[in-house]
Amino acid sequence: MRKNTLYILMGLAIVALILAGCVTKKAVNQKPTVSLVVTPTEGIVNTTVFKATIEVDDPDKDSLTVKLDWGDGTETWDITWEGVAPPTTLEATHMYSTPDSFTVKVFVDDGKGGTSEDEVVVTVSPPPVEKHPPVIEDFEVKTPIYTSDSKVTFTATVSDADGDSVKLTFKIDGKKVWGDEYYREATSVTKEINLSEPLSRGVHTFTLEIVDDEGQVGTPVTKEATVERGKPVVSLKLNSEDIAGKTVYINKDAALSVEVYDEDHPFDVKVSSGTTILATDSTEAKDESNPWTYDATVTTPASTEISILFSVIATDATTNGVTEIEATVVVDTKEPTVTVNIASPCVTSGTFTAADTYLESFELTLEIDEIGSFTLKCGTESTTSEWSYTENVDYKLATITIVAYDKAGNKAETSDSTILDNVAPSFDVDDLTMDSTKENYNFKFGDGDPNATITSITADGSINIISTDTVNDITKNSTLVVELISGDYYYNTTLVGTITMWATDSCDNEASKTVSVYLDESLFPESYLGEIRLEDTTAPYNDYLWITFNNKNVEEGTPQVEIYQGGTLKGIVTEFDKNESPTGNIVTYKATLTGFDVTADVVYTVKIIKGSFKLGDTDYTFYNGLYEEDITATELMAPRP
């Protein structure tokens, strides 16, 4: 029994297993997809038709329910599609009755819990307001208009159906002369407009343009009007040149002419000279080709300066428009007053005058021979003043001239001439170096003035002036003869004196020149010096100093010598015996050393500090270190004979 029960349980388990393997697993539902496109997205209320295009699909291909809501205030769906077989495209249209922004939504349901949605925002605007351009209902230009008028007046009635402000622009012959003022609603406008210049005679067009502040342009209105001559046209001429409003100057008789015309109206005319009426008349209208005329001659008496005021007054008999012109004619037959002078002969300055009631201009010029012409002054106003020329002028003929013109064309001229000289004389002379007792010293004296002279020549120091030969011809040299005065001179001071020269010319220009006089170094004893010896003689004999000069003019006993050893003075030698060579120009001085001696092979410093010499017939003494030399004493066994 148990065994059978076991078999039954096992069989049931096997059957259950078999049944479990034969059951299919239930599938998961997938949600549908949807997209929404609305065109257009902007529109006008009660006008624009909005179209919705819906694309739907379902992966499981379930039957779908689609709902569309246009978003214009209803809580229920506007459109429902049931049993839609995907995939498919659905379309719907809609018109909105109120302006606003609306969200259009689409919703899709597969009935198995799968849903999707999409949305688009559209804007609905109110209908546009119809705009109306402004209107010019009436436009008139006030007439008559005259060429003398500086203003034009117009009237107009304007309106705008939309209640906008309107802006007016007024044009004459297509050119804007006024505008940019705004007017509100229907308005009557009267406007007086200032003109930049009067209108010419003839037909002109006058246009009024209108636009509102919304940019709506109305139809312009154009009127024509004839501009008449409002006042006569007047011309005043002298020798065919227009002089109206001017001041003119004449020095010869001139023709005065007056012309007046007014094509539209009769006119009256009066011509005057100062308070004197020259002509008066009343005439019918006349055109430019046949004007009213008046002619006269303005005479110019000699030596006259008068001013005449001419006037012409013409009055339009219809408009009372008046044309008045004036001109001043100056009759001037007097020449300007001019003077010029040079302060004094030779001086490069002076005074001048240029004067006239109606002076136009003057010019002051200076012309100098061989140099050129120079404008010193010029101007347009009367003046009395000074002139000067600051450059150097060396004895040249000069002419100073002034020329003046007045406004009538009269000319005056005068001049003055003289010699100008502001340059002092000069000397072509250098410092002098004397190389002999007497010196013929030539120097050149220069000046542009042939009358220039040397007034004085002096010398100081050790110089004598023996004679001078001064000349006035600057192409020649002057000769100066000088000599050196006998006396004492120092070797290291070669300046022995100065020579000063003075000169003056005919214009009292003065000059001086000082030159220095030096001695020629070749005169100094060093150039004559020969051999110097120191001898150490064996006792009991004295030592000796020997000096040889290459010039016999060295006088006996005149040298003075100092002998040093190591910077210490050993002794002074002042007495010498002179031995002249029988041949040549050599002289030897021998001195016996007393009070001190020298030692052979020892170096001593020998200084010749003084010497007297003859140069020609004159004696000179020179001091202060004529010569210095280091000498090595030599040994002498026995005294020299």
Output the CATH class name of the largest domain.
Answer: Mainly Beta
**Tell me, what's the shape?**
flat
| Continuous helix count | 1
The main pleated sheet reads as: 5 strands, mixed
Distance between the termini: 199 Å
Number of domains: 6
* Percentage of residues in DSSP E strands: over 45%
Low-confidence parts: 1-10, 14-24
Q: Which bin fits the share of residues in helices?
A: under 10%
- Class by SSE composition: mainly beta
Radius of gyration: 68 Å
Q: Please give the CATH architecture of the largest domain.
A: Sandwich
- Overall pLDDT, averaged? 85
Number of strands: 50
- The CATH topology name of the largest domain reads Immunoglobulin-like
Strand order of the largest sheet: 2-8-7-4-5
Describe the model.
The chain is mostly beta strands and 641 residues long. The protein folds into 6 domains: 33-125, Sandwich (Immunoglobulin-like), CATH 2.60.40; 135-228, Immunoglobulins (Immunoglobulin-like, Sandwich), CATH 2.60.40; 233-332, Immunoglobulins (Immunoglobulin-like, Sandwich); 337-420, Sandwich (Immunoglobulin-like), CATH 2.60.40; 426-519, Immunoglobulins (Immunoglobulin-like); 524-636, Immunoglobulin-like (Sandwich), CATH 2.60.40. The protein is 3% helix and 59% strand. Strands 2-8-7-4-5 form a 5-stranded mixed sheet, with no helix packed on it. A 5-stranded mixed sheet has the order 10-16-15-12-13, with no helix packed on it. Strand 26 (337-342) and strand 27 (349-355) form a beta hairpin. The longest helix is centred in the first third of the chain and has 21 residues, at 2-22.
